[in-house]
């Protein structure tokens, strides 16, 4: 699935649209350059899950936990693991837990990431500061069903 957003509010809205479809155990891998909108997307997702706290990038903490929403949200940023193995961090406990995991920079944790996931790539469109291109791919049965439901939701809204 591929589509475009034209501003930060629309990027946040994508997260808000996806959130009601999420279930415990869902894993979202976010790919994109610095400033692409990964945390903006996650902010919208968290708001729609009912998280009341401000959503901040977990770059320096690796994991931020938000447990006050409809589902616990575990927002991870693996960028700092570029030269370190992720296997010693116990991330599996989050992936096998009762919440939703959103992982930024997943390429630095490939050794521990589950095979089934929804991969969302966000790219800034050259020459347009606020426009983003989304590419979403599902790996596995549950992520495939999630993507199908999201496609239907977006088709019905347009």
Automatic annotation (TrEMBL):
Predominant place of localization: cytoplasm
InterPro entries attached to this UniProt entry: P-loop_NTPase (IPR027417), T6A_TsaE (IPR003442)
Pfam families, alphabetized: TsaE
Subcellular location: Cytoplasm
Classification via SUPFAM superfamilies: P-loop containing nucleoside triphosphate hydrolases
Protein keywords: ATP-binding, Cytoplasm, Magnesium, Metal-binding, Nucleotide-binding, tRNA processing
Source organism, top-level taxon: Bacteria
Keyword Magnesium among record annotations: yes
Family stated for the protein in its record: Belongs to the TsaE family.
Protein name (record): tRNA threonylcarbamoyladenosine biosynthesis protein TsaE
Organism name: Lapidilactobacillus mulanensis
